[in-house]
Design goal:
transmembrane, 24 helices, single chain, two-stranded antiparallel ribbon, 78% helix, membrane, transmembrane helix, mainly alpha, elongated, 3% strand
């Protein structure tokens, strides 16, 4: 008789304490695997460890997968949460999968209402006009400016201030015309996520904490159910190495099932007649609201756009564009005084003064972008756009966007589960001995 069929023998001779404790052990180990797996995913936000001389060179000789362990490629031994360590990659894929489909730079800029921005710049800039003119004239032609009668100075101030709406309107129009060349949302998002990895963690935590907690609890269920056949096999064959080896399998599969529970399947499907869908894609609408709020509050903000325009890779081009828009406008603002000033100071000196005013004005036209209250007010429109478009994403693209920070490093979670399963098998072996009759 084949041992597998000897049910009476199994029931009669089984060490029930030994057999019954195996599923309990695998259940507890499954729970701990998923609980500690979440810690590995999210913590710490920054790399914690030590730098070891020669580690960077050694890491370059190791298999590529091993090089991906946080810290090794940088010459350190320690750990950084998988998601914050891959924040930049998630940002890149988030743009490719979602933000690039959510809208072009021009659409984002239009959502921020350029006319409203121009009005705000004028309101902010107008009180600075006298100081700007004084600063430039004292620097370029101090004696001439000192000797000018006060009424003439006041006339210059007033004319420049009167011309401001037209000048600034031209500036914001020019930004809008060239925004696709000046603003790179992908680079902006990647750079911001890399500098602020906590934001990526927030995307998961703020909407998905309930699902993540459920995954941990299911770790016990998966581990317990997988432990039942392990107990049977261990009793039948009674080999000392069985529990540690099968513990590796249970640990690996438990983590894989936990990831599957969170993300798969993206679309609602029927499995054995039961409707099934991943926990995250099931709540895509709620996730879209959280995701949009974080992007609008912390990433694609008026403040960050202004900073990127002036200080980003295309900053020089932005300054040239603004200067080209401001230069003729400053001539118009000088009005009837322009000819007299050219005569008094000379054409070259006049051009120098105009260029100096232009340089000063370029920075000040973007400075109002840094107003936090105004940025938040305009950002609500960006939030609405991103939330709407994220809800419209195909579920597969949404899952890919959310899973991007994890996918390449999932093997670490599975390996972590396997190691814990191996340890659980040895612990049970130490406590209850070898199974079998």
């Amino acid at each position: 008789m084949v041992p597998v069929l000897e049910i009476d023998w199994f029931l009669r001779d089984a060490d029930w304490l030994h057999v019954a404790t195996i599923p309990v052990f695998t259940g507890v180990v499954g729970y701990l695997i998923n609980w500690t797996g979440l810690i590995m995913l999210f913590n710490p936000i920054r790399f914690h460890g030590v730098r070891i001389p020669g580690m960077r060179e050694l890491a370059s000789l190791l298999p590529r997968k091993v090089q991906e362990v946080p810290g090794l490629a940088q010459g350190g031994l320690g750990w950084q949460g998988i998601i914050p360590a891959r924040a930049a990659k998630m940002g890149s894929i988030a743009v490719d999968k979602a933000i690039s489909k959510l809208g072009t730079p021009a659409e984002f800029y239009q959502q921020l209402e350029p006319d409203r921005i121009a009005e705000h710049i004028v309101e902010t800039f107008r009180p600075d006009v006298p100081g700007l003119v004084d600063q430039v004239m004292r620097s370029e032609r101090p004696r001439l400016w000192r000797d000018l009668p006060r009424p003439i100075k006041e006339a210059v101030y007033a004319r420049v201030q009167d011309q401001l709406p037209r000048i600034i309107g031209k500036v914001t129009d020019q930004i809008g015309v060239h925004i696709d060349q000046l603003l790179d949302p992908k680079l902006m998002v990647i750079d911001h996520f890399e500098k602020n990895p906590k934001l990526v963690v927030s995307i998961f935590r703020d909407f998905g904490q309930r699902e993540l907690n459920l995954m941990v609890r299911f770790g016990f269920v998966f581990g317990f159910l997988l432990g039942v056949p392990v107990a049977v096999v261990d009793h039948w064959f009674g080999q000392w190495w069985l529990l540690p080896v099968l513990g590796v399998v249970v640990g690996w599969v438990t983590n894989a099932l936990g990831m599957w529970l969170i993300f798969e399947p993206p679309e609602r499907e029927r499995i054995l007649g039961v409707p099934v869908q991943g926990l995250f894609p099931r709540r895509q609408d709620q996730a879209a609201e959280v995701y949009a709020q974080i992007i609008a509050d912390d990433v694609i903000t008026l403040q960050n756009i202004g900073d990127f325009l002036l200080n980003g890779p295309s900053g020089d081009r932005t300054r040239r564009l603004l200067a080209d828009a401001l230069r003729p406008a400053i001539d118009r603002a000088a009005g009837p005084l322009r000819g007299a000033v050219r005569v008094v100071v000379g054409t070259r000196e006049y051009d120098t003064i105009r260029e100096a005013v232009t340089r000063e004005a370029v920075g000040r036209t973007i400075t109002p972008f840094q107003d936090p209250e105004f940025s938040k007010e305009q950002g609500e429109k960006v939030r609405t756009l991103i939330a709407q478009r994220t809800k419209e994403l195909p579920a597969t693209d949404f899952v890919e966007m959310m899973r991007a920070a994890i996918r390449e490093d999932e093997w670490m979670l599975y390996a972590h589960g396997a190691i814990m399963g191996l340890a659980g098998g040895f612990l049970h072996l130490a406590m209850f001995g070898v199974g079998g009759a």
